[in-house]
Amino acid sequence: MRMAELSAESGVPVATVKYYLREGLLPPGERTSPNQARYSAAHVQRLRLIKALAEVGGLSLASIGVVLSAIDGDETPHRTMGVVQQELAGPAPKVSEEAAEWASGRLEDLVRRTGWKWHAPENRAVANLIAALATAKELGHEKLVERLDEQADLAMRVAAIDVEVLAGWESVDKIIEAGLVTTVLGDRIFAGLRHLAQEQVSREVLGGLPRD
Hints:
With about 210 residues, the chain is mostly helical.
């Protein structure tokens, strides 16, 4: 397909497609003349992936470039997903040292009970989790952290579903791409389901409570 067809099929404007080509986010097409190239379904899929990462995942083009480089590299799916999760997590917000120390202690207690392993402090997901726990304390809502074990159990159940979905693909390339999509869209899907569930439970438990 030509550039115009590629744009129409992917829903990405021609000017943006050309920008992605210049930046190396999209591989070049097959040259048919000095000023013309032919593109394939793989280009359409890559453009849709970039669009999802930017619009749904909220990643910057710099982070998208890092993620796509990891996908196109020769690392294992596990290591590639680590890169994806790092970029999705982004830098952790600042919290007070006291609250961060308290949160780190709660997380270390959880690790001892669950046996989870990670590479800290390089892991941005860990840093963001510590910041969230610390913020809960600073706001006076430590009760949320008291249910951490139950939340960890739920997270493991969701992660098991995610990995089962990935294992259904035959090729490593498809597993890596599916892992990226599962991580980006899975976060949004689970958050949406959680919000809907909260609405239902809130109506049942809190709906009849009067204001003071």
